[in-house]
Design a protein that fits this description.
alpha+beta
Length: 219
């Protein structure tokens, strides 16, 4: 009987405890300001000594003003993540700002580590994401409206208006990561083999090279 009770307890304990082990653990200190100079490799950043923490570790003014959008895509993404705000380390949140010229595009991309939510500061945008069943979920947004892009799904934002537009972004990760679909496939180092891209996109090698040339970082 005793063995059965113990076995039953273990089953219940594992059923309850397993979900907890599947998530990030709670913080074990008030703050863990990222120390990018430590050289220690961990899932995140090592903590700066408490005596060296200042208010500047929790401050960033980089999204206060519009960014410069005179580039090929007519947009600029400014991140406010742990790389800019060390105090975000272990907190699981970050922000950003995206500015759009008239006609500007934040091209199709994914955030492998976070769901994104945007708030329109001014202007108007056409936005959307594509599900794994290849369904496009899209919406036209105006000032003050919000939209959510689920973690890992390809999404985009396009300013089809005649005036500049801007959004504030929020993520449930201190460093959500970004993979731009076109740039990832056509400008990687080393490059994705031509035979992969020609078959995937049903185009010739010349077209692949033309896309590579257009997407290559400006020197």
């Amino acid at each position: 009987m005793g063995v059965k009770i113990v076995a039953g307890f273990l089953v219940v304990f594992l059923a309850v405890a397993t979900p907890a082990f599947a998530n990030d653990p709670d913080m074990l200190q008030d703050v863990c300001v990222a120390d990018s100079t430590s050289g220690v490799k961990v899932n995140g950043f090592a903590c700066k000594a408490a005596a060296n923490i200042t208010a500047e570790d929790f401050f960033f003014a980089g999204i206060a003003k519009p960014g410069v959008t005179n580039n090929t895509m007519g947009s600029l993404v400014t991140g406010a993540n742990v790389e800019k705000i060390p105090g975000l380390n272990t907190l699981g949140v970050s922000m950003g700002r995206i500015d759009f010229a008239p006609g500007g595009l934040n091209p199709p991309h994914t955030h492998p580590r976070a769901t994104e939510m945007i708030f329109v500061l001014y202007g108007e945008l056409d936005v959307g994401f594509i599900t794994t069943s290849n369904k496009l979920i899209s919406k036209h947004l105006n000032v003050g409206e919000t939209f959510v892009f689920p973690r890992g799904l390809i999404h985009f934002q396009k300013n089809n208006g005649k005036k500049p537009a801007a959004v504030v972004t929020a993520f449930n990760s201190q460093l959500p990561g970004t993979q731009s679909v076109a740039a990832t496939l056509f400008t990687s180092t080393p490059p994705v083999p031509d035979h992969v891209l020609t078959m995937a996109f049903q185009v010739g090698s010349k077209q692949v090279q033309k896309i590579r040339d257009r997407l290559a970082p400006k020197k």
